[in-house]
Please model this.
Amino acid sequence: MPRPAKHATIPVAFANSTTPVKKQERAIQTHEHLIMAARKVFARDGFAQARIEDIAALAGKTRGAFYTNFRDKEDVFIAIIEDDFNRYKKDFLRNLCRTTSVEEKREALAQHFYKVICDEQRVLLMLEFKMYAIRHPQKKKRLADLHHAICARFSEGEMSQYLGEFKHKTGIEKRRETARVSAAIDGLAINRLFDPESFSEERVMTLLRSIAAELFDC
Model:
């Protein structure tokens, strides 16, 4: 009597061929979910009071998953800042590609700055980050250096062709310029949130156009 036919089996090598890809996709998703959760927790509770357990729980992950992706709260905070810079740079480059004159490029930069200062979550997170660094002098230089490195990448690659004389400055000069612009942008952003009636869109745009014209002499 013939034996019942067995179910066809897939060779092990073929069955596992997509496993690394799926694992990589899950790892990327976990990383992104943790960053999204950290944004909300930091903005809600402040950096100092934020707990890793709360970040992991909001992301639907374990504490172990957090430490697989990040060393500590500082590490995920840096990842958030870098993610913001990359997102804004991509958006800015897309708008710059549509410009044909120096005036249009400066206006695109001013509009870019306006989007940045209107991002309330980014404003609060950046304030938390800088206040944390100020309150921890032993960490301030390292965090400031990391922040500068992220800012510096804004002027690299495709962006350099649009930045006029700025791209020819030395590393120290670029750091001073970006720090000055960052201070102006953050100051406007914070005070606009604090006292919006004193900072109309027209007034803010006038200030931002002045900054754009001075920083990037295209």
About this structure: The radius of gyration is 23 Å. Residues 102 and 218 are 6 Å apart (CA to CA).
